[in-house]
Design a protein that fits this description.
This protein is of the alpha+beta class. The protein has two domains: about 150 residues, MutM-like, N-terminal (N-terminal domain of MutM-like DNA repair proteins, Alpha-Beta Barrel), CATH 3.20.190.10; about 120 residues, Helicase, Ruva Protein, domain 3, CATH 1.10.8.50. The chain has a four-stranded antiparallel sheet with strand order 1-6-7-5, with no helix packed on it. It has a four-stranded antiparallel sheet with strand order 2-3-4-8, with helices on one face. Strands 9-10 form a two-stranded antiparallel ribbon. A hairpin with a 3-residue loop joins strand 6 and strand 7. Helix 1 crosses helix 6 and helix 5 crosses helix 6. The radius of gyration is 21 Å and the shape is elongated. The protein starts with a helix and ends in a 21-residue tail after the last strand. It binds zinc ion. The site of zinc ion has 7 residues, from loops. Zinc ion binds next to loops.
Length: about 300
């Protein structure tokens, strides 16, 4: 579920709560979630958390050697502390979320990972489903993770220029829905915010990326930034970690049959085998209803 706006606010909240704290240990409860073997999770013990960053939809917790233990073997870890920082990188996928809890609180089957901190507190990664999809990597450089290495420009970053956006649109012709959710084209956007961006830009989700005129390219570029930034402003005001229920500001996504906020036409949807998109047929597809794609095997 979480996309760039939720993860940006989550990153800021985690940075405030975690920077400077010491990791006491880490436990993975869902073995399929941990995608790396070396370095082992035990190597985190005794390290200070230096920073928290967001790379696309991946949250990275960077840990330095603890200054108090760097000159001698760690009292808590049997693994030699190297001087290179370690990055604990977490991709929440569809159903993951972070929560703080006392270390003594029991873990259950929904807890994928518990990062034990000082002051007897845990940062826990919870997956609210038994379909384990979230991933955890412990690496010395986040670019060692395939999904991070292939990320396109971040819409909040300086590299997200109109020129680069235009270039990415024209590189390969595909639907705008596909383009916006391709992490190697633009980082951080998923099914929900791509619907909202296309609504804001008044463009069909099935319009082809290489077929936009210059004015449409400019509109889509601006809509991408504006929709994400507005969502971040909304989620920041909550003063806590964002949740799915906080998406009260959406205009078309998950609003089937509700009036479009611009023209009052009921919002329509298109279903695929694994997902659903939402749009306004008046504002985005000049009155034309889009066909269902559930049985279309290869969506172009
Ligand atoms: Zn409308």
């Amino acid at each position: 579920m979480p996309e760039l706006p939720e993860l940006e606010v989550t990153k800021d909240r985690l940075r405030l709560a975690l920077a400077g704290r010491v990791v006491a240990g880490a436990v993975v409860r869902s073995p399929v979630a941990l995608k790396t073997v070396t370095p082992p999770l035990e190597a985190l013990a005794g390290r200070h958390i230096r920073s928290v960053s967001r790379l696309g939809k991946v949250i990275c917790i960077a840990c330095d050697c603890s200054p108090s233990t760097s000159s001698s073997p760690s009292a808590t870890s049997p693994f030699p502390l190297s001087t290179s920082p370690l990055h604990l990188c977490i991709h929440l996928m569809l159903s993951g979320r972070f929560a703080f809890a006392p270390t003594r609180a029991p873990l259950n089957r929904l807890h994928a990972l518990a990062l034990h901190l000082d002051r007897d507190e845990d940062l826990r990664v919870i997956e609210d489903t038994t379909r384990h999809r979230l991933s955890v990597h412990l690496v010395t450089d986040p670019r060692q993770i395939d999904i991070v290495a292939r990320l396109g420009p971040d819409p909040l970053g300086r590299e997200f220029t109109l020129a680069r956006f235009r270039q990415a649109l024209g590189r390969r012709s595909r639907t705008l829905k596909r383009f916006l959710t391709d992490q190697s084209a633009i980082a951080g956007i998923g099914n929900c915010f791509s619907d909202e961006i296309l609504f804001e830009a008044r463009l069909s989700p099935f319009a082809l990326s290489a077929g936009l005129d210059p004015e449409e390219v400019t509109r889509l570029h601006a809509a991408t930034k504006n929709v994400l930034q507005d969502a971040i402003v909304h989620l920041r005001a909550l003063d806590r970690l964002p949740e799915r229920k906080d998406r009260t500001f959406l205009r078309v996504h998950d609003r089937l049959g509700q009036p479009c906020p611009t023209c009052s036409t009921p919002v329509k949807r298109v279903s695929y085998s694994e997902s659903t998109l939402y749009y306004c047929p008046t504002c985005q597809t000049p009155g034309r209803e889009l066909a269902d794609r559930r049985f279309s095997k290869f969506l172009k």
